[in-house]
Amino acid sequence: MLQQRTLKTITRAVGVGLHSGQRVELTLRPAAPDTGIVFRRVDLPVPVDIPVRFDSVSDTRMASTISPGGDPGGPKVQTIEHLMSACCGLGLDNLYIDITADEVPILDGSSASFVFLLQSAGIQLQNAPKKFLRVKKAVEVREGEGARLMWARLEPFHGFKLSFQIEFNHPALDATGQQVVFDMGSGTYAREIARARTFGFTRDVEAMRSRGLTLGGSMDNAIVIDDYRVLNADGLRYDDEFAKHKILDAIGDLYVAGHTLLAAYSSFKGGHALNNKLLRQLLADAEAWELVSFADTAEAPRGFAELAPAW
Ligand SMILES: [Zn+2]
After folding, report:
1. In contact, 155 and 133? CB cutoff 8 Å
2. Angle 241-254/81-89 helices, nearest 10 degrees?
3. What is the pLDDT of residues 230-272, one digit of tens each?
4. Strand pairing of 150-156 and 260-268?
């Protein structure tokens, strides 16, 4: 049987929120089978649980934000996507995440620090079958036309592979790999995807700061680009770091489904909003998906039993 996974021990992280600039502490704790991933706002007078579900997503403008029942006026946790991406990459199903503010810390702007943190805590196999969300028919969402066209698509596939194409018409980004294809079954998430950092343009910074966004952003936690070039002294971590970060984000955005998808995902210029719209469209059609588990591990997609070796 392919088993569910949680953490072996409690682990903690401290950092600042990218948008809020607030100091925040995370405590990640093991959770029972079929709990899913649940954030708990422990800074509120009465702690509030916010389960990670596709319909908890309440804002997707700059990052993926969740609130109980998806209520935009409710208590929230912002910027969950990099941590969710790490959980998916390591195959973690069940976790409590106590948080002391309304935003997950940005750390180094990638998911590598979360991967390290989770792996250091250890992965515990649980006595319950791991469930996957199998896509049975293709779904697609499109927005805009011409130069503003963007789309995202899910198609049936025995495994989880992603393809992302960027197009920014910017000299620094055009000089890098524009398309990345990644197969989760390759076992290379931590090495090939997790280190890709988020990125931002200096020309947007002033406007965003005036709206109270990116207050915690710096070259320590993002690739910063002016009108011509990357400003970070050390340059890029991968030749195609921008497109890889979009794959990292998509993995996190789709993991709010509560289970790893068995699907081929592809997107052209998409983002958090389109990814959530795609997931909602999929889940709204009962004919388009089903939950499956693998009593015989040999029937699981190649590489899925080894996503994160348990010790
Ligand atoms: Zn991101």
Report:
1. no
2. 80
3. 999 999 999 999 999 999 999 999 999 999 999 999 999 999 9
4. antiparallel
275 alpha carbon – ligand 1 mean position (Å): 12
Cβ contacts of 112 within 8 Å, gap of 6 or more: 190, 194, 195
Residue 174, classed as helix, strand or coil, is helix
What percent of the chain shows pLDDT beyond 70? 99
DSSP state for residue 103 in the 8-state scheme:
B
158 assigned to active site? no
C-alpha 235 to ligand 1 mean position (Å) = 18
Whole-number Å distance, alpha carbon 81 to ligand 1 midpoint, is 7
Reference 250, options 39, 67, 60; nearest CA is 60
Which residues are in the CB-under-5-Å shell of ion ligand 1? 198, 249
Q: What is the pLDDT of residues 129-153, one digit of tens each?
A: 999 999 999 999 999 999 899 999 9
Whether 274 and 154 have beta carbons less than 8 Å apart is answered as no
Count how many Cα atoms sit within 13 Å of the Cα of residue 54 in the half-sphere of its side chain: 19
